[in-house]
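Posting here for the record, re: flavin-adenine dinucleotide.
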Amino acid sequence: MKGLLTELDNLGCEYIENYSMKRFTSLRVGGEADLLVSPQNYTGFLRILNILSSLDLRWVVLGGGSNTIVADSGLRGVVIVTKKLRNIEIMKDGIVLAESGAVLGTILKNTIDAGLTGFEFAAGIPGTVGGGIFMNAGANGGEIKDVVERVWIWLDGKEEVLSRDEIQFEYRKSNLPKGSVVTKAMFKLRSGNRKESKRSVRDYMDKRSETQPIKMSNTGSIFKNPPEIPAGKLLDELGFKGVGIGGARFSEIHANFIVNSGHAYTSDILKLIEIAKEQAFLRRGVKLETEVRIIRIIGEELN
Ligand SMILES: Cc1cc2nc3c(=O)[nH]c(=O)nc-3n(C[C@H](O)[C@H](O)[C@H](O)COP(=O)(O)OP(=O)(O)OC[C@H]3O[C@@H](n4cnc5c(N)ncnc54)[C@H](O)[C@@H]3O)c2cc1C
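Prediction output follows.
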């Protein structure tokens, strides 16, 4: 680790040791990561990935932390965060290039301002390009796969470009090659009407504030919707609204959201997830799969 810190100093890269992941994840839980590294720019990002892959250390890349829960015992290894890789370039013919840490909401705003349409689906999704592509984030009848054309990835020391078809997106899932890191992406949007786009965004946001616990720390949907029934409806029917352990509980507003009342631990959330899975299967024969990514050990993420 010491050698790495020297390399990071030489690169002028910001890092924080023993960083509380509570400060980073949107559900505000999780222990300390040994090291949180925040590359300053694209070239620095690639350099750091190359350096880390040559060392015997575990590492993971995170975007906004809005779909991630970290163990209370923290993470042994390095968390690379892309928050400074935010460049968004709007080019001719509706082409948009965005770095992995660009925030989906900013792309939405900038593209509407530029008279483009197609990104409205992302209204209210608080993630980044990297996390959005990894998860194939979607809402309001659209998904990132509908607008992405190409994705640049870093894999084993090399940069490659993949077309949308090569990624074979599925519901809340990409099939990026294992170990790849999204570095930037190209989107293709259409000419639109600013007023109409803004109206759609307003409607989507109004709907969210009526149906989701937007005032409390949460991590979006906990479970993917199984084919049989929306997860929220199922959990509501099973009586999960308001059911809690410690400082965490299933929201009274939307049963597929777990909220943190301020003093939750990851262990509380994981227990709630297990109980919900068990009850859904025992009482309704439905297998719930988590949408949220759970990191206990870097490199062995679960969902
Ligand atoms: C209030 C709220 C509402 C939400 N609503 C929605 C919704 O409507 N629809 C929806 O789909 N999701 C929703 N989410 C979940 C979340 O915002 C999305 O999944 C989002 O795409 C996650 O992006 P992120 O950058 O925060 O990812 P993170 O949580 O940082 O990471 C998620 C996963 O992506 C991987 N990852 C991140 N960056 C990269 C990269 N550069 N290269 C490779 N892998 C990477 C991480 O390792 C991790 O496994 C919501 C969350 C919240 C808190």
